[in-house]
Each structure stands twice: as structure tokens, then as C-alpha cells.
Amino acid sequence: MGRIVMKFGGTSVADLERIRAVSALVAKEVDAGHEVAVVVSAMSGETNRLVSLVDALDADCPPGEDKCGGDIHDEYDSIVASGEQVTSGLLAIAMRRRGIRARSWLGWQIPLRTDMAHSKARIAEIESSAIGPSLADGNVAVVAGFQGISDDGRISTLGRGGSDTSAVALAIALKADRCDIYTDVDGIYTTDPRIVPEARRLNRIAFEEMLELASLGAKVLQVRSVELAMNYNLPIRVLTSMAVEGQDNPGTLVCHEDQTMEERVVSGVAYSRDEAQITLLRLSDKPGMVAKVCKAMSDANVIVDMIVQGISRSDNAANLTFTVGERDLDIALAALEAAQEEIGFKAIKHDRDVTKVSVVGIGMRSHTGVAQTMFEALAERGINIEVIATSEIKISVLIDSEYTELAVRALHNAFDLHETKAPPVTAP
Amino acid sequence: MGRIVMKFGGTSVADLERIRAVSALVAKEVDAGHEVAVVVSAMSGETNRLVSLVDALDADCPPGEDKCGGDIHDEYDSIVASGEQVTSGLLAIAMRRRGIRARSWLGWQIPLRTDMAHSKARIAEIESSAIGPSLADGNVAVVAGFQGISDDGRISTLGRGGSDTSAVALAIALKADRCDIYTDVDGIYTTDPRIVPEARRLNRIAFEEMLELASLGAKVLQVRSVELAMNYNLPIRVLTSMAVEGQDNPGTLVCHEDQTMEERVVSGVAYSRDEAQITLLRLSDKPGMVAKVCKAMSDANVIVDMIVQGISRSDNAANLTFTVGERDLDIALAALEAAQEEIGFKAIKHDRDVTKVSVVGIGMRSHTGVAQTMFEALAERGINIEVIATSEIKISVLIDSEYTELAVRALHNAFDLHETKAPPVTAP
């Protein structure tokens, strides 16, 4: 008996049948004597439908007058958050019709307070003084994920995948014993099984590895949810909501490194196509120039990822290459053009057709030779590397998008990820 | 220059094209120097879509266990209110893209406070301390209609058509000069033009008449919106949102009787198929018996309409016949069965296939002979009258539903409603 948070993504609540199936999974935990808070996403496809409505109107500017009436992220949030509002109410009804007391909670009702960065807000605080007693009183709390309330009393949203972060933050605020993330896959894999059919489900993975994988494009968990869980040492279990009754569904436990137990150098290969490469040509060679670029990007709310400074062979001037999320490219380019004088560069080049491929593993800390294996595997297939970035536990390369599948397969093979290196460990 | 409230129903915001058209109508008023609050309904079809999701889950009770987990109106409200949330955000974006400052306001953000009768809540108070200054500051307020917040901090809704009431109440709270209700018809007609093609648009109609027509099934305005407007003497203009550019769109002005100016005895013929007839057989003949029936209905939140007490020819016992809204019939029957001993009756009969047909007119106050004309017209067509109810300005009869069109045409003709009795009056 304890307090648990369960989170169900869009495909898990895609229609009434799925919502009923979710209510059965929740009922099982309630019957086991747990206090349960459930975090739900919008029904699959609903967020896209709403976003497409917003985008169509957003584009209604007279020619040449970009964003004529200003930012619309506040209204985007109010519109898109309605998707989770619907699902939370529906699941609350489904729970009641099983005879289980339940009520929905919207972000502003909890309240889950965020900063003012509409459409990519960050959680500032979750009030537990209303929802906590309601749980203790035997009510299932069905929480609309992805949403909160900003200081001006408007609805805010946490960005795509934000429901994971809602769930983890709620679990921390409610001092829950664990957070189970139900999704449409049965755990975290060594790589995308659509590209490498031999990819293997991991029984456990360290927070740090999951963080890198999530940052690198493995879309199972939102990056910030993993950061949060790591900071508070909250174990997350990733498992499928589609398990057949009676069938084992251990999922993957994302937990502290000491608990992972499996010995391996590389845990997984990730890739992200949502990348764009920007190169600033012939930069003025003054101190603080990179800081100015980063400030311009940060002011525009654009996250800069891989950064490389180099010397152009043709004119011996300094160039700066970095990557941003592909959907931020236009904003980034506009911000850089506006700051061209301030930063001091001659021209901008950009490329949307790039993919970041990465190998990740806690074991890289104490093993050498990973980079060499990686670069050799890519070179053997004639794949050219544009940019390299490394951290303690990962190596990322930026390559031409058309080599994506080839690169992922080559690396999965080079690090023998299809083979189990340790006996499977059962999740608790 | 003044302050106006404009309200757009579901068909007026049915898709992005219509929302853009609405933004043009709003822009016109802004350009004329007005402060404008716009109240919007959900996109046409959206409320039905959401209600059907709710209904499907609501029906998930084990056989024999009706409403096993209790009332779900609170969750219904939270789910269905999302429709207006989306439209308000979309129209705010459309306004901004015309270069006009605008923001959406949800019921809880204003706040528009209601009682706790979820799914048919009544407005208790509209706070104008936030929205008023925002308007005065030059922002268009795009208000999600139909919704408010109840004392427990949950979303409440005002019942079908509630956006009209939102608009009128907001106009009163904001001390607006007028309230324009844009809809898919170009005004109030003498009767339903689908049944009587010769039906005529009225230039003006008295609050009292509109109130009867609205109560009687003319679906252009919600009853409570008319009551409110009458109590505060706020003129409502009903006009179409589909007018062709440059074409006259006077609509119908709903206003104080003295301002109607058109002389006529009967203004319109209304009908409502959303009726069900209940008869309690062999009632115990004790004082307060009807009061007990009314209390049972009121406790179940069911509105009782026409009431007739009679003596059964067969056994000389007292019977009580009354009508309720068809969608309340099951609730009403359940409540009556539960109170059978308390009220004291032998059996219940009910009939769903009944229609209420009514003639309405301020002039009936000072003219006799209306009832005679009405009953003769129906008798000539062999239409049997089940129940009769009258007020100062209307006569209603309950008939078998299959005679609905025949009865409406007969009455429209009997009162010469296709002829203009006074020269048309132009709305201000």
C-alpha cells in the first residue's frame, strides 16, 4: 500500500475503448490499496488537430507583416490544453462507472504553477494542499497533464511530451512511492526497433543514460521528466498500456546508476532528425563572441545544442557552427540576422537535412575506445561526420539525414547491442 | 463610441473560414471606436461530439446498477466547456492577426461565478474588475460562452444555449450599450420558416413575447438570456453572421414593449417537440399533493411545465397530468417512482410523442377571441388537444407530435401572420 502516480500518453487514451482499458489498470492499483493519481495526455491526434487550427490562423498575416499582432503562445496554450481537459474528465467518468470515486484536476485547479514561457513553460511549484487530502480521502485524482497556470492567471503548457514532466513533478510533490509511465511501447530499447528489428528492451537504465537518450531523440520520455526524477531520485517505470491480461509487463525501470546492475559500455543508440545546422561565417575574432551568439539564441528562447568553432580553409576566418531544433530554425535565423551587427559576422548558412546520431552509456566513463569504434563503423560505410559533440557518457555526431538508418544499424551492430550481456533483471 | 457585447453561436464559428469572417465583423466595431467583448460558442458539432463521448462512458454501468458511481455533471461540464475554450482562443488569434489586440477569457478567469447545479448552472455574479480595465485599455475580450466557475472551484456550464445568457449577463456586468446576438438566422420569425415558408421576420419584438417564444421552443435565444435582458432593460439585437457584405442586416430588436410599435395581437407561433407528458393516476386526494409532486421534480432538478388536474371518467379518481422536457423524462419517472408512497398515487403513464404548440402576443392582453380562433383552427383540422396552458400573452396546447406541422401552419394562417400589419421599422 502506498501512493503512486500513473501516466498514460495519447495512444493509451486514444478512444473510449482505450480509456476503459486504462480505467481497468487504475482500478487494479486502487484495489491493491494504493492511493492513485493518474496523469493523462490528450487523446491521440487531438493535440495535432488543435495545433493545426492554431497554425492556420497564425499564418493569417498580411504579406510582409510577420506576426503582425504579436505572440500567440498564450492562446495556443489555452486552446491546446483543452485536449487533456477532455481526457481527464472522461477517465474520471470511467472510474466512477467502475464504482471508484474519482475527479478530474486541471492545471489551474491543483494549481500547478509555471513560469510565463507560454507553450514551453517550466513548472515552478505544485500545490498539494487540495489534491493531497483528496487522495488520502480515497479519491482517484485524474490530472490533466501538460498544463499549468502562469503568474498572470492564464493557462500554460509544458511543451510536447510535457505530460511526463507533469507526472514526475506530481509524484515528487505528492511524495509518491513511484511513477509508472504507461505508453505504447513496452520499455526503453537499445535503439528504435523500426530501424533495427533486433533492438532489445532494457530491464533497467540509469537516469543519466535515459537523460541522454531522451535528449537525443528517443521519444519515450520527455527530457525534463527524467531530469526531475534524477534530481529527486524518483524511480520511473516505463511500461506498455497495451499488455495482454495476465502477461508479464516488466517494462524498463529508470533508476539510480547503482541499481542498474547490468554491465555494459554502451546502452543505446539514439537519433534525432529534428535538427538544423547553422553556420555563422567570418566571425569577428573578439572575446565573448560565442557568448553573444548564445545570448541571442537564449533571448529568442532557442536551445543551442552542438557547437563547433572552426577556421575556414578558404579565407582563414573563424566560423561558428551549431545546431538548433528544426522547428526553432526560423526564429533562430531571424534573431541572428537582427543581431548581426552586435555579434559581428559576414553571413549565415543553414541546413535542415541533418540528423544527430548518438551512442550512450554509463560505462563510457571507465572504458576507452568507444569513439574509435564509433568513427570506424561510420567511416566503413562512407558516412561523413559534420559535427561531433561528446559528454561523459555519450558521443553524438551530426550527419546527412539520408544516412540515418545506415548509421544507426552500423552502430547498434558495432556495439553488439542485440546481445544480452547480463541475465535479465526483473523490475520490482 | 460605446461598449458593446457581440455573441456568435456555433454555426457562426463552425470552421476557420467562419472564424475569420467573425473577426472581420468584430474588427468593424473596433474600427468604429467601440470597446468590444465577444462571446463565442463551441464550433458547431463540437459540443455534440463531446457530449456523445460523455454519454458513452456514462452508460458503462453494470446491468441493474444505474449511475453506480454517482453523478457526473461536474465532469460533463469540464469536458464540454473545452469547446468554447478552443473557439475563444482561435478568435483571439484571428483578431491579433488583423493587428487588433485581443485575449481570450475563460469562465474561471473572469471569473463568472455560478451556483453548483452542474450542467445547468445559473450565473451568480460576473466580476468585471479584470475584464473591464482590459477592455478600457483597448483589448478585445474574447469570452468563452456557456461556462463559469462554481463555488468549489470546478468548471460549470449554463445548459444548452447558455452562451446567450453569458453574453447578456456580461453586457449587463460591463454596462454595455447593447448586446448583438449573431446567429445563423437573420432575426426572429413569426414561426419556423422550415414549416411555414411565408413566415415573416419581425423588426421588433417585446421582451415578454420573446420570452414566451424562447420558452416555447423557438431556439434562437436561450430563455434565461431574455429574462435577464428584460430585467435590466438591455436591448438585444438578433442578426445573422452570414450577411453578404454591404447588404442590410437589421435583424430583430428584442426590446421593451413600448418600443415595439407594431400593432398586432399575435406575434408568433412556436412549437416544441422536446416535451414528454406524465400522468399520475388515482392520486390520493389530500391537500398539498401537487406541491409534493413539484417538490419531487424540483429536487431532481426537473422543470415542470404544463399542469392539469382532472378526474378520470372510468373510476372517478383524481389524475394529475403535466409535462417535462423530454430529456428529463427518465429522471422524472425515477424520482416519481421513488416518491410514490410519499406522494400517494397508483400508477404512472407517460408519452414522449407530444408537441407543445403555442401562439404568443403582447396584444392578447387587450384582445379577446384569440383562444377561440386557435381552438377552431385546430378543430377544423381534426387535431385533438391533450392539455391547455395559458398566460397573459400566450396560449399553449399539447398535441400528438404527428400533427405538429399541420397545427403550426393552421395557426400561422388563422392569425394572418404572413401579412405585415404595420410598416417595417428599422432597427437603430
Structure description:
2 copies of one chain form a homodimer. With 428 residues, chain A is of the alpha/beta class. The first copy, chain A, is 32% helix and 26% strand. The first copy, chain A, has helices at 16-31, 46-58, 73-80, 82-96, 131-136, 162-173, 207-215, 223-231, 289-299, 329-338, 340-343, 370-380, 404-414, and strands at residues 3-8, 35-40, 102-105, 112-114, 123-126, 140-144, 147-149, 155-157, 178-183, 204-206, 236-240, 252-255, 268-283, 304-311, 318-325, 347-360, 387-391, 394-400. In chain A, the strands form 4 sheets. An 8-stranded mixed β-sheet of chain A has the order 3-6-2-1-9-11-12-10, sandwiched between helices. In chain A, β1, α1 and β2 form a beta-alpha-beta unit. In chain A, α1 crosses α4 (82-96), α6 (162-173) runs parallel beside α8 and α7 runs antiparallel to α8 (223-231). Chain A is globular, with a radius of gyration of 23 Å. Chains A, B: Its EC number is 2.7.2.4. Chains A, B: It catalyses: L-aspartate + ATP = 4-phospho-L-aspartate + ADP. Chains A, B: Residues 278-359 form the ACT domain.
